[in-house]
Design goal:
By secondary structure, the chain is mainly α. Helices cover 64% and strands 0% of the residues. The N terminus is likely disordered.
Length: 113
């Protein structure tokens, strides 16, 4: 009888909520989670092809499936956070464009000669 033990570790978000270096951290976490999902998916396939009773295989696959589901939930959360930070950066960049040389619509002056 072969028993596969796999554990997931919760991903801790680093940073203080400000965008900047936390973007690299999010990208690294996303990459790590995707690698772990791939690894667990391969184990899932290996269990189906391996030896053992159908009951044991089913139990092990259910455990792996639950872990994969948890990782996918974490992945969705990180992707959502990454999209929000990207949107904030775009808004900040757009705010910098409006100014003295590029007035916003509220500060535009129409001059007729």
């Amino acid at each position: 009888m072969t028993t596969i033990q796999a554990s997931t570790q919760p991903i801790q978000a680093s940073g203080n909520g400000k965008s900047g270096s936390s973007d690299n951290s999010i990208a690294a976490q996303i990459s790590s989670i995707m690698a772990k999902i791939s690894e667990l998916s391969q184990k899932f396939k290996d269990i189906a092809l391996g030896s053992g009773t159908p009951e044991v295989k089913k139990e092990q696959q259910e455990i792996l499936e639950a872990q994969i589901d948890g990782l996918q939930a974490q992945l969705q959360m990180l992707l959502r956070r990454q999209a929000e930070e990207s949107k904030q950066k775009q808004e900040q960049a757009q705010a910098k464009v409006e100014g003295v040389n590029k007035p916003s619509p509220e500060h535009e002056i129409d001059i007729y000669v």
